[in-house]
Each structure stands twice: as structure tokens, then as C-alpha cells.
Amino acid sequence: MKNSGNTILVTGGGSGLGREYARRWHDAGNTVIVAGRTLSSLAETAKGRENIHPVEFDVAAAAGDVAAFATGLCERFPGLNVVVNNAGIMPFENIEAKRDLGEAERVVETNLLGPIRLIDAFVEQLKAAEDAALINVSSGLAFVPLPKAATYSATKAALHSYTMSLRKRLEGLVEVIELIPPGVQTELTPGQSQRDGYLPLDDFIAESMELLAQKPTPSEICVEAVRAFRNSEANGNQQELLDMLAAR
Ligand SMILES: NC(=O)c1ccc[n+]([C@@H]2O[C@H](COP(=O)([O-])OP(=O)(O)OC[C@H]3O[C@@H](n4cnc5c(N)ncnc54)[C@H](OP(=O)(O)O)[C@@H]3O)[C@@H](O)[C@H]2O)c1
Fold first, then answer.
1. Is 60 in the pocket of ligand 1 (CB under 6 A)?
2. DSSP output for 133-184
């Protein structure tokens, strides 16, 4: 991925990781489009930065609406060459008892179907673009699930798999990168931005931006704090980490 001169779409750009990446990429000389459901937070991301463009968009929208969004955006920004699937939600759930599945379905729509639809809507634009890249934000929980966020963990494991397939199928056309955050201090879950044991947001952004700037860009952006999770199956301690997460 080029460090500057890109036109980058970041979903979930109104807070947390998406907001920080949008600002750093902007400041490095890229045009950035931030998309999300809350225009006021997107506007806050863009405040004082003339090349950040807020756009209201729900990644859980039906495929036809996502396609229409992509067509409109490519007309407005014909140089669009990077798409970042960052928007996500992480509710806690009790899967051991019968329940209303509405929330679990929303997690799948947002974290998995959303990226699949968005990639479909932008794939031809990306294939035709110079220096095209696609970044999917998964999670350390793709590799060791957190039982109290089972559907979330499952969507991230699926996104990891989908990203591997995409990387093969788009080889030589689009750089496909998986960004695998550890627990980071954002408001992904209530109170998480103040919780001990989570990486401070600035530290995570700085370390992951350094990895993204390497040439060639690593296919997986794995900061130090997430490597034990990423490699747990190979290292033979996945069960141990699962027990640790289950006790939380
Ligand atoms: N922080 C962590 O510990 C951590 C760890 C591993 C992975 N991640 C991943 O990193 C990504 C960013 O999370 P974060 O930590 O930065 O949390 P965050 O601050 O809650 O950011 C998530 C963003 O997604 C947007 N979003 C949610 N549903 C959406 C929808 N249907 N359509 C469009 N936008 C939507 C939210 O904005 P609106 O609600 O305004 O739309 C919000 O700006 C997520 O994919 C998350 O799973 C985070």
C-alpha cells in the first residue's frame, strides 16, 4: 500500500480505530472518505482537515443499497483505490440459553455480510485502480474466541478466512491486507476505553501504522500484543488462552 496519494474509504470512521487511521492517513497526504451511521461523529473526525469527507452509510444495508452507495462514491471520487472494512459491533451475549437472535443477526450483518457486500460493490473499481488495496479489520478473537462474544468472534474468524480467499483471487490486482487488532482502548464495548489490560489507542495506531508503512506491506498487520492469539494454534496453547478468556 502506498503511504500517500491514495483515496481511501474507511467504514466506521467516526470513532475509535477508524477515526485515528483516517486522521493519520489524511495527515500523510491521502484523501480520506469516512463512512458511518452518525454524521456528527464523522464530521468531528474531519474537523480542520479539508481532505477528510464524511459520508453517511450503514454497512448493514441491503446489497442493492450498498451497490448504489459505491456507484455514487466512485463517481464523486474516481481515484478511489483503497477500501478499509473497519466498521464493527461487539455485543456480549449468552449463547447457552434460548434467546432472541436479533442482536446476533445484526452482528453477522454488520461484521461479515457488510464487508462481503462492500467488497463486491467496490471490487471492479479496485481492480481497475493503480496501487489498489483492501484492508479488512478482523481481531485477535478470530483466532481464540471470547465465549461471551461468540457471534462477534465467529464473524471475525469468517472474515479472516474470506480475506485469505480474496488475497489469492486478487493476487497481482489488489493488495489484500488483514489488520488484526488486540484489545484496544476504544468504546467498542461500553467502558473499554478506560479498561486496564487493553492497549492505549495511540500506541496501537502508532505500532500498526509502522507495520503498514513497511515495503512490501505485510499481508497481516499483527502488533506485538496480538501475536500470541494469532499464533496460538501453531504454538499449541489455543485451549489455554480460550480458558483464560472464558474466565473473564
Ligand atoms: N478496540 C478493540 O479492542 C478491537 C479489537 C479487535 C478488533 N477491533 C475491530 O476494530 C474495528 C473498529 O472498532 P473500534 O474499536 O474502533 O470501535 P468503535 O469506536 O465502536 O468503532 C466502530 C465504528 O463502526 C461504526 N459502525 C457500527 N455499525 C455500523 C454500521 N452498521 N454501519 C456503519 N458504521 C457502523 C460505528 O459508528 P456508528 O455507530 O456511528 O455507525 C463506529 O464508528 C471493529 O471492526 C472492531 O471489531 C477492535
1. yes
2. EEEEE--GGGTS--GGGHHHHHHHHHHHHHHHHHHHHTTTTSEEEEE---SB
Ligand 1 centre and the CA of 87: distance in Å? 4
Sheet holding 175-179, edge to edge: 52-56, 31-36, 7-11, 82-85, 133-137, 175-179, 220-221
Q: Which domains does the chain have, with CATH numbers?
A: 7-246 (3.40.50.720)
Q: Which residues are catalytic?
A: 152
Dump pLDDT digits (tens) for 201-219.
999 999 999 999 999 999 9
Nearest CA to ligand 1 atom 7: 139
The 10s digit of each residue's pLDDT in 89-120 is 999 999 999 999 999 999 999 999 999 999 99
What pTM value is reported for the model? Answer: 0.98
Question: How far is residue 7's CA from residue 2's CA, in Å, rounded to a whole number?
Answer: 10
Does residue 153 line the site of ligand 1, with CB under 6 A? no
List the grid coordinates of 11. 467504514
